[in-house]
Amino acid sequence: MNPESTLGRRFFISWIVSALVMFGASYFWHGVILTDFERMAYPKGIFLLVASVVYLLVSLGINKVYELKVLSDKFPKMVIVKGMIAGAIVGLLMYMVTMVVGVSFSNNMSLANMLLDVSWQTVEGTIGGIAVGIVHLFVFDERAFRAD
Fold it and tell me: Global pTM?
């Protein structure tokens, strides 16, 4: 098996799985626990379509951070930890961007709301990062068995 095809397959699978896991977690959090979807001012279908694109981009970001040399050097064999760190970084950055542009389900942003939101985005990103790490753990990498 070609190492480049393994890397491509590993990247693609972890990208899609991470996006699906985060999208599911977000839907459960916002749609079931917080019932935020009931207060939306536009159709739920439009939100879900745009959210799916956003989660593909966020997952792409997590995968790119996961592949950074600094994380690979620091955690060469700890794929889950590396995924958690990558996800937490991207989740925190995602919260910062949404806060700056004013995207939120809440009209009254108190400090408690902000802390809950930043915590959730970090947890959600971490969940996505764990998915990336798990895929990297279970998708075969023949480079680990080569002597070069």
Answer: 0.83
Distance CA 133, CA 107 (A): 36
Give the span between the Cα atoms of 68 and 90, in whole angstroms: 13
Structure tokens that stand for 102 in this block: 């004013």
Report residue 38 as tokens: 């009931």
**One-letter amino acid of 101:** V
What is the tens place of the pLDDT at every residue in 73-87? 999 889 999 999 999
Q: What share of the chain is helix, strand, coil (3-state, %, to 5)?
A: 80, 0, 20
- Domain-located, residue 146: no
> Domain range holding 30?
3-138
**Are the C-beta atoms of 129 and 66 separated by less than 8 Å?**
yes
User: Looking at the 3D structure of the chain, how many domains does it have?
Assistant: 1
Q: What is the H or E stretch that residue 34 is in? A: none
Q: How far apart are the first and last CA of the chain?
A: 16
